[in-house]
Design a protein that fits this description.
The chain is 31% helix and 17% strand. By secondary structure, the chain is of the alpha/beta class. It has one domain: Rossmann fold (3-Layer(aba) Sandwich), CATH 3.40.50.720. Strands 3-2-1-4-5-6-7-8 form an 8-stranded mixed sheet. The longest helix is centred in the C-terminal third of the chain and has 13 residues. The termini are far apart. The relative contact order is 0.14. It binds NADP nicotinamide-adenine-dinucleotide phosphate. The site of NADP nicotinamide-adenine-dinucleotide phosphate has 26 residues, from helix 1.
């Protein structure tokens, strides 16, 4: 049986995308990264900022990937082509960050977590909320320091793959259960930006009441 690590497609070659790319390459994952425009536009950035990650079109990256990481500004998620995502593990790192995204009525008028709302746009995707509640620079700075990263998903097997990825990035994974629980990782919540450890109380008990 092959023990090859999953291949990762990162959509969004900005601060979060490039930082995840570096962590993933360092951990031995094969990484393809796509920006909003032509491959040539990010080729130099990729070579300098994320050596080892392969610049690609979004379609090519997604096609060959086991894990797709959404790292675009939330208000731009509909500029991603959802076809080809069905059956893939999709990690939603995106936050509703009003200064950048503006007010998004579709989120504020819907009581669900932002990842559940986003998931409607990616039918069949095995959606996991994670990597959103830690600053992009901390992904490298705080690796192997005992800091934890949480994840939420309705797909247990996908969660296990993401837990391994979090460990491979040098963090302790915290399984917070269903995708709906991802709301406790959103901006404004105590866990957002907090230096969590594996024993941190994320307020899950209150959420279930
Ligand atoms: N900054 C943080 O510390 C942090 C931490 C955790 C999570 N997040 C979340 O992570 C996401 C990315 O944040 P960021 O700070 O990395 O933003 P960023 O630096 O602005 O990077 C986002 C990148 O996504 C690209 N993009 C837009 N539409 C795209 C598409 N359809 N396909 C591929 N690429 C596309 C943008 O390109 P153009 O500029 O050409 O549009 C830009 O390069 C956001 O949702 C944010 O809320 C941020």
């Amino acid at each position: 049986m092959s023990t090859a690590l999953p291949t990762i497609a990162i959509l969004g070659a900005g601060k979060v995308g490039s930082s995840i790319a570096r962590s993933a390459v360092a951990a031995g994952y094969e990484v393809r990264i796509a920006g909003s425009s032509a491959v040539e536009e990010i080729a130099l950035t990729a070579e300098i900022l994320m050596p080892g990650a392969k610049p690609s079109t979004a379609a090519q990256a997604v096609d060959g990937a086991d894990i797709v990481i959404l790292a675009v500004p939330l208000h731009k998620y509909r500029s991603i082509d959802p076809s080809g995502m069905s059956g893939k593990i999709v990690i939603d790192t995106m936050n509703h960050w009003v200064p950048v995204n503006g007010e998004m009525d579709e989120l504020t008028s819907d009581p669900r977590s932002s990842s559940e709302i986003i998931a409607d746009y990616f039918p069949g995707a095995r959606m996991v909320k994670s990597l959103n509640h830690i600053g992009y620079h901390e992904l490298e700075e705080d690796a192997h320091t005992g800091r934890a990263i949480a994840y939420a998903t309705d797909d247990e097997a996908a969660g296990e793959v993401v837990a391994t990825l979090i460990k491979d990035f040098g963090f302790d994974p915290i399984n917070i259960g269903a995708l709906a629980n991802g709301r406790i990782l959103e901006p404004g919540q105590p866990a957002f930006g907090a230096h969590l450890t594996k024993d941190s109380d994320l307020g899950l008990a209150a959420l279930k009441n």
